[in-house]
Amino acid sequence: MMATSTANIERERLLKLAEEYREKGYEISFHPNSEDLPDFLKSYRPDLIVRRGEESVVIAVKSRASLNSPSSTYLRNLAQAVAENPGWRFELVMTNSEDAVELPKAEDSFQEHEIELGLQVAKQLVTQHLESAMLYSWSLVEATLRIVAQKEELSLQRLDPLYLVKQLTVEGVISKSEYQLLMNARSLRNSIAHGFKTTQLTQKSVCELIEVTEQLLKGLHTGDGAG
Question: 194 and 114 in one domain?
Fold first, then answer.
């Protein structure tokens, strides 16, 4: 009964995700057949693949109840396979209500001077503990994105980072290359946060994330965005 309930919750989340991506102009492929998959994915059974232009996203939906040792190994291998192919990224979506954290108000977020100090700490962490550096740098990126969105006076209903990155890219505040870098960093951050190893994490990738954050902060005072 528990397994059936979990499967139903995951399927509902998957359907909702597919609809969200479809509305944004993505081509949707539910549980694609092996013959429809690129070679590097033929030994896997992705829940959902969405494509738009040169961007392809492999999406897996899981809940804590279904995230056991075998499925964790499978997801880690899948994420690794996807990460090795340019233009592709992996997204793990958790269904549990405890994962859908209620975000605090924007005014409780780090302010500019706090972010600038934090970036100095992040730079030190890069040479000491790479995973911690990535997690901390991403938190500073999120705070920066909220400040930029407020400065641009965007009508934002949500404060989650994925939404902010996409909206700011649409508005031209974030460039295409910065968007891709932030998406890659988000994928790495999620892998680390959920306990997955990733060979894609390097000092260079964290330093680039810190640099983008600094550019976004600088853009707040130039009046012409970060791009």
Answer: yes
Sorted by sequence, the CB contacts under 8 Å of residue 86 that are 6+ apart come out as none
- Say how many residues make up the chain: 227
Contact, 162 vs 138, CB < 8 A?
no
More confident residue, 128 or 4: 128
**What would the pLDDT profile of 149-207 be if each residue is shown by its tens digit?**
888 887 555 667 888 898 899 889 999 999 999 999 998 998 888 888 777 899 999 99
AA identity, residue 59: I
pLDDT of 67-86, one tens digit each?
666 777 788 888 888 888 98
DSSP 65: G
Confidence at residue 213, expressed as pLDDT on a 0 to 100 scale: 96
Q: What is the DSSP string of 184-198?
A: HHHHHHHHHHTT---
Number of domains in the chain: 2
| Domain stops at, among 50, 83, 99 | 99
The dihedral over CA atoms of 189, 145, 89, 98, expressed in degrees to the nearest 10, equals 60
Q: How far is CA 146 from CA 102, 112, 115, 132, 208, in A?
A: 16, 11, 12, 22, 19
Note the Cα 1 to chain centre separation in Å.
32
